[in-house]
Amino acid sequence: MTPISSLVNLLGDTLQWLSRAVRIERILLFAKTDEGYEIACDTADSHVQARRVNLGTSIERALRGRKEPVLIRWERGIAHVCRQALGREESATLAEVGANVLLGLGTDGFLCLARKTGGAPMDAMDFGLLQADSEMQVAQEVQNRIFPSERPFIPGLDYYGDWRPARGVSGDYLDYFEMDEGTLGLAVGDVSGKGLPAALLTSSLHSIVRALRRSQTTSLTDLVQTVDELFYEICPDNCYATLFVAQYDPIGGKLHYVNAGHEPPLVLRKRGSHHVPIPLESGGPVIGLLRQPSYREGVVSLNPGDLLVAYTDGLLETKNPGGEEWGWRRLVSTIEANAGQRARDIVEGVMDSAETFACGTPLFDDMTLWLGRVEEAVANRPLWSMERLAVGAAA
């Protein structure tokens, strides 16, 4: 996908809403290309064809590193942006569209806002709406960065995870990391609420778990109890999170886990030509809601051919236009039908299947899926278990 089409997909559907909300006569998306800049979207013409415009590098330098909207100051036909005077051709291009405010989009381009309907100047509330839009983009970038960007190599285990936020940012939490002696740590959670507040708590939960995994915690129950204590301190009233944490040892083929009120993950046990689902039930309440709850640890053996599936309830609750939920049975049958494929292909197939079922119905909740596929028994712990398999962020 080209930078222009990517930007159009990301922002094109929101420009008309932003124009109405702030009562702006016209909003344009200037997208950066190898040859310069093109107008990719224009609320004054919803069917605009991308066209080249005369813009140099002065705007790019002026907006570099800025996340907030910037007011253009005009003096004798010359546009000044962040105290930098633009060239005559650049000023003429901006004047032609009635530019009043610019909002940088990193290295991909910028938004250009014309004056308000009726010629009124923009006020503090207008800038507040623009700032909120900009901050949402920053939140999305932060979440993309905390989603695992690499997979520790765990011998005999093929695994992959993906997530789809319902509102740009997500209250779902997924992390995996190598622990002591080549074992795999896995954490999946779901923070109550939606949108930016839930995303902030998700980032906090990620930081807490990441920090504690480096400590000398003796057991998963101790880890979850400490996570609960710290998360309780920052949670607003009536907020909480479900959390499933696990540690997989490829030598012993054992999965130790604590399920703190999370949607039960599944072990799909290989039995001849089919799989038998074994739910990993709750071992304690959700975190962040009660004072000093207790948790218990479970353990299950994983054999070659078995699948471990962890997910959030948003995946099961995906609805079609008739209000029917995708559900647990479709999840299991879709995975079983593709059980011979690689973990990444299974995960992507499940997510695509759920979205196809929705038939364009907007997601009500974030959906996350992690799947591990046991391929072979491991006799000895290899010295090369510290190798990393780099992967791109799935969000």
General form: elongated
**Largest sheet geometry:** 6 strands, antiparallel
Tell me the total number of β-strands.
21
Low-confidence stretches: 1-10, 382-395
Class by alpha and beta content? alpha+beta
Number of helices: 9
CATH class of the largest domain: Alpha Beta
Helix content: 25-40%
Q: What is the total domain count?
A: 2
The CATH topology label of the largest domain is Phosphatase 2c, domain 1
Name of the CATH superfamily of the largest domain = PPM-type phosphatase domain
Characterization of the model:
By secondary structure, the chain is of the alpha+beta class. The chain has helices at 3-22, 58-63, 88-96, 124-146, 195-212, 220-234, 313-316, 327-337, 343-358; strands at residues 27-33, 36-42, 51-53, 70-71, 73-75, 78-81, 84-85, 99-104, 109-114, 150-152, 157-164, 172-178, 184-191, 241-249, 254-260, 266-271, 274-279, 298-301, 307-311, 367-374, 388-390. It has 2 domains: 3-141, 2-Layer Sandwich (Beta-Lactamase); 147-390, Phosphatase 2c, domain 1 (4-Layer Sandwich). The strands form 5 sheets. Strands 3-2-1-9-8-4 form a 6-stranded antiparallel β-sheet. The longest helix has 23 residues, at 124-146. It starts with a helix and ends in a 5-residue tail after the last strand. The relative contact order is 0.12.
Q: Briefly, what is this?
A:
By secondary structure, this protein is an alpha+beta fold. It has helices at residues 3-22, 58-63, 88-96, 124-146, 195-212, 220-234, 313-316, 327-337, 343-358; strands spanning 27-33, 36-42, 51-53, 70-71, 73-75, 78-81, 84-85, 99-104, 109-114, 150-152, 157-164, 172-178, 184-191, 241-249, 254-260, 266-271, 274-279, 298-301, 307-311, 367-374, 388-390.
